[in-house]
């Protein structure tokens, strides 16, 4: 009966899901700036009847990575307050200070604790503006300059709100606790650490996350119930400081920060690769100040390393730090190394993958399962930090993919997706939750 009612609820909310997704898409917010987004989520969850945590109750402020400067936070907070449909009563001072993200809790008596994760941030990109791009053509393109939902997290917000409505409507049939985690700052791997450090995963028995994904040869169905292999990563911002001098008159008095940064860049790309798995390194930005007749006194790098496992990534990080310090020493400069993002290695639990696959076959037979139900992931994802915390105390975790047509790849200015994936995703999350919190004797297995 509960599955039938769940499907009816999802059918009724199809237009709301699209509306929510398009509203969030039109006002994208990058990591730790998701103020309007968080306020909307908090309002909706409160109205539904959830216990709602925001600000320092949702995250550990001291564990935030890659936090924008105070001026950027203040400017965005001012802008948000003038934007349409911003629920000002839910826009807290802590949100304005970059403590974004929301957790909704539904307690339904004794039983397992289930956490569902939805990331909410956008990317620092300028969206395409032409009639071939549907968000522009149908007038839901980004109104926030330099920000764009180019990965699908706008859809994730809508999906999470849809799941929240379904589970609240069916709460009398649930046994246990649901935590809906609307995570900030996933891009750049910055936000999961702050949610995890606040302790919200410490009592979780089951953890499920998902991402909308392209329907290509990697996934030949509507749903892939588990993934593995996201690369562990460390993101670093580096500042070399030297001493300016006249390049023609007194070059010996200078300490060349740009030369230190250049030496570091070349050496970083020569880090010996690890024999036990894949590794990556990339310097994506090198900026210096000065002129042709000035020994530059400051240079900055933005770089990342990755590894197939957390241990390989640690090796890459240590090698990078040695090189950065050595390059500074060669030019008698100082160096500041700031970690601005971090993710770990990730693997879904086969038992939970199989359980969700069985639920889809039984309750959602109109959705097809991919041939490979534990598929190799790509890139890096800080959901790994949450998954690993749950798995460290014996809980089960999985990171799914739900497929959709995409006219342009993720992280491109023309990104969009077929919105039929929204109800499909709500169904998968809700059906899994109904099964796990059914009160069956084996629900704790």
State the gist of this model.
The protein has helices spanning 2-12, 14-26, 35-48, 70-80, 93-96, 134-137, 153-169, 192-197, 257-268, 310-330, 350-363, 383-392, 421-436; strands spanning 51-54, 102-108, 113-119, 176-183, 206-214, 223-224, 226-228, 232-241, 245-246, 279-288, 294-295, 298-307, 334-343, 374-376, 396-404. It is α/β, with parallel strands linked by helices and 445 residues long.
Secondary structure layout plus pairing:
Layout: H1 2-12, H2 14-26, H3 35-48, E1 51-54, H4 70-80, H5 93-96, E2 102-108, E3 113-119, H6 134-137, H7 153-169, E4 176-183, H8 192-197, E5 206-214, E6 223-224, E7 226-228, E8 232-241, E9 245-246, H9 257-268, E10 279-288, E11 294-295, E12 298-307, H10 310-330, E13 334-343, H11 350-363, E14 374-376, H12 383-392, E15 396-404, H13 421-436
Parallel strand pairs: 3-4, 3-5, 5-15, 7-14
Antiparallel strand pairs: 1-2, 2-4, 6-15, 8-12, 8-13, 9-11, 10-12
Supply the key terms.
about 450 residues, alpha/beta, Aminopeptidase, Alpha-Beta Plaits, 2 domains, seven-stranded mixed sheet, four-stranded antiparallel sheet, 13 helices, disordered C terminus
Structure description:
The protein has 2 domains: 328 residues, Zn peptidases (Aminopeptidase); 112 residues, 2-Layer Sandwich (Alpha-Beta Plaits). The protein contains 13 helices and 15 strands. Helix 3 packs parallel to helix 7. The longest helix has 21 residues.
């Amino acid at each position: 009966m509960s599955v039938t009612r769940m499907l009816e609820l999802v059918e009724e909310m199809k237009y709301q899901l699209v509306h929510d997704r398009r509203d969030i898409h039109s006002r994208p917010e990058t990591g730790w700036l998701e103020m309007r987004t968080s306020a909307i989520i908090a309002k909706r969850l409160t109205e539904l009847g959830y216990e709602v945590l925001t600000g320092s109750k949702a995250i550990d402020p001291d564990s935030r990575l890659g936090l924008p400067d105070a001026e950027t936070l203040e400017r965005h907070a001012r802008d948000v307050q003038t934007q349409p449909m911003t629920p000002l009563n839910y826009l807290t001072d802590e949100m304005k200070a970059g403590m974004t993200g929301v957790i909704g809790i539904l307690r339904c008596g004794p039983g397992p604790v289930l956490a569902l994760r939805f990331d909410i941030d956008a990317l620092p990109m300028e969206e395409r503006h032409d009639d071939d791009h549907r968000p522009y053509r149908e007038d839901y393109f980004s109104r926030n300059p330099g920000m764009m939902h180019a990965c699908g997290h706008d859809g994730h917000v809508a999906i999470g709100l849809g799941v929240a409505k379904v589970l609240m409507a069916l709460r009398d049939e649930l046994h246990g606790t649901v935590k809906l985690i609307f995570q900030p700052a996933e891009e750049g791997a910055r936000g999961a650490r702050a949610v995890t450090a606040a302790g919200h995963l410490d009592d979780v028995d089951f953890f499920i996350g998902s991402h909308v994904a392209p329907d290509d040869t990697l996934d030949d169905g509507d749903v892939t119930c588990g993934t593995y292999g996201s690369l562990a990563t460390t993101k670093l911002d580096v500042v070399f400081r030297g001493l300016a001098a006249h390049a023609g008159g007194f070059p010996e008095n200078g300490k060349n920060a740009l030369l230190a940064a250049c030496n570091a860049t070349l050496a970083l790309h020569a880090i010996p690769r690890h024999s036990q798995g894949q590794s990556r390194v990339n310097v994506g930005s090198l900026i210096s100040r000065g002129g042709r007749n000035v020994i530059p006194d400051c240079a900055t790098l933005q770089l990342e390393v990755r590894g197939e496992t957390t241990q390989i990534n640690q090796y890459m990080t240590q090698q990078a730090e040695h090189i950065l310090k050595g390059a500074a020493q060669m030019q008698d400069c100082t160096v500041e190394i700031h970690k601005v993002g971090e993710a770990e290695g990730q693997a879904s639990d086969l038992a939970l993958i199989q359980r969700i696959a069985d639920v889809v076959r039984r309750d959602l037979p109109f959705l097809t399962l991919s041939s490979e139900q534990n598929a190799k992931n790509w890139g890096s994802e800080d959901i790994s930090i949450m998954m690993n915390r749950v798995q460290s105390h014996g809980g089960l975790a999985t990171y799914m993919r739900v497929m959709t047509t995409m006219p342009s790849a993720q992280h491109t200015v023309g990104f969009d997706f077929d919105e039929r994936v929204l109800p499909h995703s709500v169904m998968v999350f809700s059906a899994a939750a109904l099964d796990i919190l059914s009160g069956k004797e084996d629900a704790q297995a």
